[in-house]
UniProtKB/TrEMBL annotation:
<protein>
    <recommendedName>
        <fullName>Macro domain-containing protein</fullName>
    </recommendedName>
</protein>
<dbReference type="InterPro" id="IPR043472">
    <property type="entry name" value="Macro_dom-like"/>
</dbReference>
<dbReference type="InterPro" id="IPR002589">
    <property type="entry name" value="Macro_dom"/>
</dbReference>
<dbReference type="Pfam" id="PF01661">
    <property type="entry name" value="Macro"/>
</dbReference>
<feature type="domain" description="Macro">
    <location>
        <begin position="1"/>
        <end position="174"/>
    </location>
</feature>
Length: 174
């Protein structure tokens, strides 16, 4: 396994990284799944920052990313990215999922973030097929780390057994 990659099973709100990534929706106002968990555990400060971003730029488009405080979480920042809803145009959705990972990493570099943790973006209520989402996540992160030396650790945090075993298989090969 690439020494900068790490795999963890569990709850991303517990991770002590410089940044954790949220699988947000374009409203930035919170939702279910990992988004709900992050806002619940991090508290009002995260929502306040999200509302300020909304007022400035009107939310966050699919495949893009924005950054806020992490409030009460052990992480320093939350990077909110919006994965695609998996319906129609497979190639476009795959590109948008890759963009969600690479734009989160770009924003991390701009904020001097060295350690970052990702959930399995779009594989919950957005219904992206888990095996393909895992391939895209790992390939996009690997490509980014080849071009950029400033990120020291990327943790994939899997909440469910299926994602964990998919990532375990993929990461053994890297
Ligand atoms: P999306 O709308 O992008 O599909 P979801 O939050 O519905 O986002 O699901 C994305 C992934 O996050 C799913 O694989 C889900 O199992 C996982 N997840 C849910 N809660 C947590 C959590 N607390 N920590 C890490 N991952 C989580």
């Amino acid at each position: 396994m690439n020494s900068k990659l790490k795999l963890v099973k569990g709850d991303i709100t517990k991770i002590e990284a410089d940044a954790i990534v949220n699988a947000a929706n374009s409203s930035l106002l919170g939702g279910g799944g990992v988004d709900g968990a992050i806002h619940r555990a991090g508290g009002q400060a995260i929502l306040d920052d999200c509302i300020a971003i909304r007022n400035r730029q009107g939310g966050c488009k699919t495949g893009e990313a924005v950054i806020t405080t992490a409030g009460k979480l052990p992480a320093k920042y939350v990077i909110h990215t919006v994965g695609p809803v998996y319906n129609g145009n497979k190639a476009e959705k795959e590109q948008l999922l890759a963009n969600a990972y690479s734009n989160s990493l770009k924003l991390a570099v701009e904020h001097d973030i060295k350690t970052i943790a990702f959930p399995n973006i779009s594989t919950g209520v957005y219904h992206f097929p888990k095996p393909r989402a895992a391939q895209i996540a790992v390939a996009t992160v690997q490509d980014f780390l080849k071009q950029n030396n400033s990120i020291m650790q990327v943790t994939f945090v899997c909440f469910d057994d299926e994602n964990y075993s998919l990532y375990a298989d993929l990461l053994q090969l890297t």
